[in-house]
Amino acid sequence: QVEQCGIDLKSAPKTHQRFRLCNTHIKAPVVVVDGVHSRFCQQCSRFHPVDEFNGTNRTCRMMLAKNRARQRSTTSGPGSG
């Protein structure tokens, strides 16, 4: 998926093989995918444009918002007060 990455993934962890990504590109703050500066989201398991992340986070804002909403709903549910 990442341009100009020719790493052989045969000895890489299964997760890296599943996404066809080397360790360097999974953890890189910026990679070029289809001409777009992107970052791999560890929650979505997808590349998103860098501007969809806060600072150096490796989880996109959309997933952070979903996780926060889920946490709020579980903490404000029945029996929490």
Q: What can be said about this structure in brief?
A:
The chain is an alpha+beta fold. It has helices spanning 14-19, 23-27, 61-75, and strands at residues 31-33, 36-41, 46-49. The chain is built from three helices and three strands.
Characteristics of this structure?
81 residues; alpha+beta; 3-stranded antiparallel β-sheet; 3 helices; elongated
**How many helical stretches?**
3
Percent range of helical residues: 25-40%
The parts where pLDDT drops under 50 for at least 5 residues are none
Look at the structure and give the mean pLDDT: 85
Element order, helices and strands? HHEEEH
Give the overall shape. Answer: elongated
Radius of gyration: 16 Å
Give me the side-by-side strand order of the main sheet.
Answer: 1-2-3
**Tally of strands:** 3
List the helices and strands and how they pair.
Elements: H1 14-19, H2 23-27, E1 31-33, E2 36-41, E3 46-49, H3 61-75
Antiparallel strand pairs: 1-2, 2-3
Can you describe this structure?
- The protein has 81 residues and is α+β, with helices and mostly antiparallel strands.
- 32% of the residues lie in helices and 16% in strands.
- It contains three helices and three strands; from the N terminus they run H-H-E-E-E-H.
- It has a three-stranded antiparallel β-sheet with strand order 1-2-3.
- It is elongated.
- The termini are far apart.
- The model has no long low-confidence stretch (mean pLDDT 85).
